[in-house]
């Protein structure tokens, strides 16, 4: 045996034996301290020539009583997905950064810490971890003006994305920025109006708040996609490049375990519940048929996946994208 192949423990035992003081010595493995840190919250995918980065804003729990359905059915669907606390159903929030090669476009911005538990508001931190800077963002596209989508655009009254134009469907801007509608809203809904108005203010002052009415392409390969019902102007975005496509669907669904098998179950956050349900049912039929990749703000991070008809005959399965290395 060559000396170099002898382990250090063996060397220790032999040397102690030669001195006549051999004692049983346990291997000197120090207890490794736990790290208590998660991986950075970003995930990259390519859609044709476009680089898409999913950015995690945080994970939170929502109360299943917000769902509009038969409580026994909801409970059993949650249990089937190992969600055993109906008051704290796991939910995530994410936005999507699209680098077209000439423009950097952020679709939805997370809560920015303006709403929800402190676990939310990490999107900018994850954007930086992914290699970009907020000042590089040219355009922010919003699916709607709920706080978990618009809250990330401002901090302490200032723009987080100082060089970005912010665009959203005009119907959403008109609704959430209206002081008159806010005054008539239930007390617990006023916070949604306040965050939208506070978020918009510094961009309006800078001439960078640009609601749109049409459905034409906004930048090359990124077009609005009508998904009505959740809010007055709720709109997805279809990203297309080199024959591949990705639909950023905003809040088409919130609770995977319940609304995929039973799309007819709505949620209290919907402005127009009946329209939101009809939209979801119709969209799921289409997406299951054409197998379009989806980027979903509230499906488990990174929220990239497809829809297929469930084997049970009712409803759909969410099929998450597999982790891919990039070349
Ligand atoms: Zn949302």
Bound molecules: zinc ion
- Total separate domains: 1
Structural class: alpha+beta
Terminal CA distance reads 44 Å
Strand order of the largest sheet: 1-2-4-5-6-9-10
Q: Summarize the amount of helix as a percent range.
A: 25-40%
CATH class assignment:
Alpha Beta
The count of DSSP E runs of length 2 or more, i.e. the number of strands, is: 17
Q: What would the average pLDDT be, to the nearest integer?
A: 91
The helix-strand sequence is: HEEEHEEHEHEEEHHHEEEEHEHEEE
Find the CATH topology.
Metallo-beta-lactamase, Chain A
Largest sheet: 7 strands, mixed
Shape: globular
What is the radius of gyration?
25 Å
Tally the helices. 9
CATH architecture: 4-Layer Sandwich
Can you identify the CATH superfamily? Answer: Ribonuclease Z/Hydroxyacylglutathione hydrolase-like
Low-confidence segments: 1-22
Oligomer: single chain
Approximate strand percentage: 25-35%
Summarize this, please?
Helix content is 25%, strand content 26%.
Fold and architecture overview:
The chain has 327 residues and is an alpha+beta fold. The protein has one domain (39-320): Metallo-beta-lactamase, Chain A, CATH 3.60.15.10. It contains nine helices and 17 strands. The chain has helices at 8-18, 71-80, 123-129, 147-150, 170-176, 179-184, 190-205, 256-259, 273-290, and strands at 42-47, 50-62, 67-68, 89-99, 104-107, 139-141, 154-155, 158-159, 165-169, 209-212, 222-226, 235-241, 244-248, 266-267, 293-295, 304-309, 316-320. The strands form four sheets. A seven-stranded mixed β-sheet has the order 1-2-4-5-6-9-10. A six-stranded mixed β-sheet has the order 11-12-13-15-16-17. The relative contact order is 0.14. Zinc ion binds next to helix 4.
